[in-house]
Amino acid sequence: xxxxxxxxxxxxxxxxxxxxxxxxxxxxxxxxxxxxxxxxxxxxxxxxxxxxxxxxxxxxxxxxxxxxxxxxxxxxxxxxxxxxxxxxxxxxxxxxxxxxxxxxxxxxxxxxxxxxxxxxxxxxxxxxxxxxxxxxxxxxxxxxxxxxxxxxxxxxxxxxxxxxxxxxxxxxxxxxxxxxxxxxxxxxxxxxxxxxxxxxxxxxxxxxxxxxxxxxxxxxxxxxxxxxxxxxxxxxxxxxxxxxxxxxxxxxxxxxxxxxxxxxxxxxxxxxxxxxxxxxxxxxxxxxxxxxxxxxxxxxxxxxxxxxxxxxxxxxxxxxxxxxxxxxxxxxxxxxxxxxxxxxxxxxxxxxxxxxxxxxxxxxxxxxxxxxxxxxxxxxxxxxxxxxxxxxxxxxxxxxxxxxxxxxxxxxxxxxxxxxxxxxxxxxxxxxxxxxxxxxxxxxxxxxxxxxxxxxxxxxxxxxxxxxxxxxxxxxxxxxxxxxxxxxxxxxxxxxxxxxxxxxxxxxxxxxxxxxxxxxxxxxxxxxxxx
Amino acid sequence: xxxxxxxxxxxxxxxxxxxxxxxxxxxxxxxxxxxxxxxxxxxxxxxxxxxxxxxxxxxxxxxxxxxxxxxxxxxxxxxxxxxxxxxxxxxxxxxxxxxxxxxxxxxxxxxxxxxxxxxxxxxxxxxxxxxxxxxxxxxxxxxxxxxxxxxxxxxxxxxxxxxxxxxxxxxxxxxxxxxxxxxxxxxxxxxxxxxxxxxxxxxxxxxxxxxxxxxxxxxxxxxxxxxxxxxxxxxxxxxxxxxxxxxxxxxxxxxxxxxxxxxxxxxxxxxxxxxxxxxxxxxxxxxxxxxxxxxxxxxxxxxxxxxxxxxxxxxxxxxxxxxxxxxxxxxxxxxxxxxxxxxxxxxxxxxxxxxxxxxxxxxxxxxxxxxxxxxxxxxxxxxxxxxxxxxxxxxxxxxxxxxxxxxxxxxxxxxxxxxxxxxxxxxxxxxxxxxxxxxxxxxxxxxxxxxxxxxxxxxxxxxxxxx
Lengths: 531, 467
Prior knowledge:
heterodimer; A: alpha/beta; FAD/NAD(P)-binding domain; seven-stranded mixed β-sheet; 18 strands; 37% helix; B: alpha+beta
C-alpha cells in the first residue's frame, strides 16, 4: 500500500479544519476524516426542526484569531461576523443591567446603579486591556517547556520574560493576582454592584467546574476578555448563517488548498505498529496510510481509545487519566413563535440583539455551582442566551425565532439517576428559570432541543461533555496542557500529533491550537523529522 | 525622649520575639513592646479557670524551624516537645474510624482496613508529598525575590529559587507545576478512594484558611502544611506547659542576649520624620526613639492603624486594603471532668493523644465551607481537636483534662447578627457536633471558653481573626 497522504486529520472540528488548511496551504496532501455526516465538530448549524436553524452547540465566536481569518481568507469563503450589541442581565426586582459594546454607553448605564462603579469601570477596562495585551502573545506561541534546559525553550522563556517586562512593569503584580485569584475576589475589589460583578464573573466560570469564588476563575474571565479586545478586528460576535458557516468557510478554504474531506468516516484506531504512526483504520475496516496523523479529538479519547494503550508508557497513561474533563454545561435550543417579553424591560429592542445573561448576583452563580459540586444540576442555573434570528432572520421563518441557551451547571456525573432519564427535567428547570424573567416564554415554545453533557459526548465526541476538551484550570493550561512535558502538540508516538482544544491555548472557537499545531508539524517536516 | 534603641519591635508574638532575639544576639540594643500583660501573642498558656491551663489560641507546634531552636538555644530555656505517636484520629458517624500514625507502616496497615488499593499507594503518595514539601520548604529560607526588579540581589535570589526547582528533577518539576494550583480534593481524588482518608489529609489544605477542599490552590496549602509531617500527616508535637512555654523560652533567650521586654505597652503610632521611622509613640503618650522599627502586627494593622495613612502612596494603601484576611476559625477551650468516650473506639488510648479530626468526608468539609461562603458559621464544622493534658498532666488537676478545639468555618463577617450575640450559639454547634461522636462529652464539660474571630481580633490583635 503506497502512502496516500502526507497528513491524516482525525475529526473535522474547527481546529482539525484549521490544521488541515494550514498543512494543505504548505503543499501537503491532506485528508480530513469526520465521523458525523457534516463537518464542523461542535461549531455547526443544523436544521433540527423545519425552518429553524440552530447553532446546536457552540454559538458565538469570541476568540477566533484574526490571523486565521486573514491567512485563510475566510471572508472570501462566506464568513461574516455580526457584532453583538452587548449583554443584557435581567433581574427579578424589575431592574436590569445592560452592558453595551459602546464603552461610554455602558458607563452611563452602570451609573444608574452606582456612580462609583461607573468610574471604576473605566479604570477596570484599562487594566483588563493591558492584561489582555500581556497574555495575548501566549495565544500565538507554542508553549516552551519550563522543565527543559534546551536552549530553544530557554530563549523562548527569556523572550517571554522580556516581553512581560517591557509591557508589564507594575502591571505584573496585577497579572499574578489575576492569574490566581477568584473572579469574585478580583471584582469585589473594584465594584459594589452585585449584578455587574456577577455578569462580569460569569465569563470566568464558563466551561469550568468552578464557581465565581473559586481561585483561578479570574484567569478564565481574562481568557474571555481577550475576545472583546479583538472586537476591533471584528472577530467577536455572531456568525451569519450560524456557527456552521464558519466551519464551512474553513472547510472550503482547506479544500481550496487541496485538502480532501471525508464525512461519515469514523476512525477506529491510529495505526502505529512498530513505533511511529503510519495511518489510521476506520470503523469499516478500511486502512489509510499517512506520513503523519493529527488528532483533533480530545486527549483522553485520543490516547485511551484511538491508540493501543500498550504502546504508551504507564506513567504517561496515568497522566492522561488524570487530565480533568468534567463537563459542566448543557445546551437548550428553542424554536419560538414570538420573542420573549422581559418583565423588567418589555417589548422588542436592542437588549434582545446581544447576549442575555441570567446572572443576578455572585451568590446566585455560586449556589448554582454548589448544586453541581454535590452531583446535581443547578436548580437555578446560570444562562447565557442568544436569539440569533434577531440579527440574522434567515435562521427562522418570518416572525419566528431561534433561541440558544447555554446552561451551567450540569455535571456529567449525576449522583442520582442518569442523564438519559433526567434530560427533560433538566430542560424544564432551564425554561422555568428563564420564564421567571420572561413569563411569555413557555407559551412561545414551538420546539425544544435539550443537550446534556452526556448528549454532548455521544453526539459531538466531547469526553464527559467538556466543551473545552479539558478544563481551563491553572494546572491544565499553557505548558501543562494537556500533559506536562507534552504541550507542544507532539505525542509519545512519533508522527502522531494533537491539534484540538485540549492543547494550548485551549477551548473556545479560537482556531489557535489547530494553527499552532500545523506550524509545529511543518517545522518538524522542514527539519527532516518527518519523512 | 531619653532612651534610644537600635531596634523597637512592636508586638511580642513569637515572630517579634525571634526577631528581637536575633537582633540582640547580634549586639543590637532592642526593645520589644507588647500590648497585653503577657508576651507570646497567639502562642500563650493562660489559666482561664483555676487549675486548667489553656493554650488559648495556637495549640500545637507543627513546623518550628530546628535551626532557630538550636541557634537561640531554646531547649536551654525550658522548651520541651512532647511528640505523639498517633497523628490523627478521625471518628466516623457509623462506628468506624480512621487512625493515622506517625509510623507510616502502621498507617498503611490501618488504611488497608478501608482499601487495599489506597494502602498500596500511600507510601508513594507520602514520598511525593515529602519531596514537593521539601522544595517549598527550601524557598522559605530565601526572602521572596521581586519578579519585576532586576537588582543583583534579586537576580541572585531568583536564581537560587530556580536552582532549588531544577534540583527536583524533571518528573517532580512537572508534578510541582501541575499540582500546586490544584484543589486538594482533585489532588487526593487522583490518589485515593477512601473518603475519610482523603478528607483527613485534605484538612491540611484548608486549616486556618477561608477555603473549601474543592478550591484551587488548596493542594499547595497541603504541601505547605506538610512540613515536618510524618507519614504524610502533620506530626503532633505538644509543648510541655502549653504554647506559652515556647514563647517564654524565646523571650528568655532574647532577654539573655540583652533585649528588653515591656508588657502593657501598647504602641499607638509609628513616629515618622522626613519619610523615615524614628520611633514609636505609646498609648499613654510616651515616645520612644529607635533607629529601626519592626512591626510584628499584621500588614493591615501596621499600615492602616500604626502609620499615618497620608504618608503612604494611595495605590499602596489600596493594595493593603485588598489583602485578604477573612478569619475563618474559632477556638473553643474546654475543662473536662473526664475524657471523651468515642462510640467508634471507646475508652482511653493512643487515639486521644494526637489530633482528633472531625473530617468524615470531602463533602462534609466542603459543606462546612459552603455555610461560611454565604456568611454564616458551619452547621457541621470541621473540628481539629487536641487533649494536651493527656500528654502533659501539669495542665489540669489530676484526673481532669483540657481540650482545645479549632472550629472551622466561622467567618468574621456574619450575614445575620453579630458575633457578640452568636458566640455561645456557635459554641453549642461545636459541642453538638463533637457529642455526636462522643456522647459523654456534654456531661463532662466543667468550663467552656469560646473565642470567635472577633475575639481573636480583639484579644490578640489578629485582623478579622485571621490566624
